[in-house]
Amino acid sequence: MRSLINKNQTLFAVVAIIVAMLSITVGASLAKSIFSSVKPESVTFMRLTMAAIMLFFVCRVWEVKITRQNRGSVFLYGISIAGMNLFFYLAIKTIPIGVGLAVQLIGPLLVAILFSQKKSDFMWAVLAAIGIYLLIPSASSDVVLDSRGLVYAAIAGFFWGSYIIIGKKAGAAHGFRAPALGLIVASMALLPVAANSFSLSDMSIEIVGLLICVALLSSLIPLVLEMQALRHLPTKTYGVLTSGEPVLGALAGFFILNEQLVITQSIGISIIVFASIASVLSPSVNTTNNVAVKINGNGAVKVKPVAESLK
Description:
This protein is mainly alpha-helical. The protein has one domain (2-308). Helices cover 69% and strands 3% of the residues. Strands 1-2 form a two-stranded antiparallel ribbon. A hairpin with a 5-residue loop joins strand 1 and strand 2 (301-304). Helix 1 crosses helix 11, helix 3 (71-92) packs antiparallel against helix 7 (147-174) and helix 4 runs antiparallel to helix 11. The radius of gyration is 19 Å and the shape is globular. The N and C termini lie far apart (37 Å). Mean pLDDT is 76; it is low at 284-311.
């Protein structure tokens, strides 16, 4: 009976993670659909602010004590969240969501390799570089892939990698309230950027409704599902599942936004996903540095090994 219960719990956890990833990628697709009316900077600010308000009450943030010793980690944590989200949205404005997620994945992958104990693990970085090369169309190709979008995705990956390292300290200092604190700082950091691009004339009931849906799909729903799933799912299994997020992102972009990928780009995404999965399964990760608390690029909380931290 106990074995059956454990199997059912594991099955639920797997389904919950898949649904959470679908929610995240659909949320990103809906966010991109708004970019023609509201700039990515404003969408990022409003979505993170809504998520911060949700978590403010859920996590009872007013009970947190900010001290001189821990305020630095909270500030840097929030900056990394802001940069990760802002540059990801700037990236997918001009490139397909699946491509943006795949390029962004390089940040966590490099962090995992940085803390690796074996030089042979650098082959995963080389493999990921090959995947990125395949994403970039040649000069003779008819496929147009905005170079600025790729650069923005790479910058988002840098902030993602920084987030993983900094998030460990913030999580150790503030526990489950760290994501709420980070989102508050991120919202404040993005306020000047959003102020220069935001206009009330751009807002409508439909836009506001979509923004609420994006906040729910990209933050609240994945948060609830993943917090439940992590109680019953091994972290390596969790990492393997979430490493496939770029594939789901490509599918969501195709069905919702009609984003097309050529064969070489699909192969490139697959190679990057494979490199990420291989780094997750590698036994050579330094166990003294392998735990991180992560808010998915969309605000969803993930607690997992550094090697498994994804978008």
